[in-house]
Write a structure and sequence with these properties.
Oligomer: single chain
Radius of gyration: 17 Å
Shape: elongated
Number of helices: 2
Structural class: mainly alpha
Largest sheet: none
Length: 96
């Protein structure tokens, strides 16, 4: 039952995140027209919400696939990473 409960909780959290993203998107046009300096901060907030929604989707996928510990929905630090931070890129093999 813990798995089902975690799925429901994450789905509800995802719904709330989607509402925040929608609200931010609706305000985006108004902000761009009225305060261009505020646009960057607004975009950062929207991308942060999008990042959180993506992490929730990843965790939902893990739960449904049976690959996650239901006691801990997120791995420590998973939602604390800096937006835009990227892992080291692996060199691609030559296509020649």
């Amino acid at each position: 039952m813990a798995k089902e409960s975690a799925i429901v909780t994450l789905a509800e959290t995802l719904s709330e995140a989607a509402k925040r993203i929608s609200s931010l998107a609706l305000g985006d046009e108004v902000i761009r027209a009225n305060d261009p300096e505020f646009t960057k901060m607004h975009e950062d907030i929207m991308y942060d919400e999008l990042h959180h929604a993506q992490m929730i989707v990843v965790e939902l996928t893990r739960l449904i696939a049976g690959e996650s510990n239901t006691d801990e929905a997120f791995v420590e630090g998973e939602l604390n990473s800096v937006v835009g931070e990227q892992e080291e890129e692996k060199p691609e093999a030559s296509k020649e």
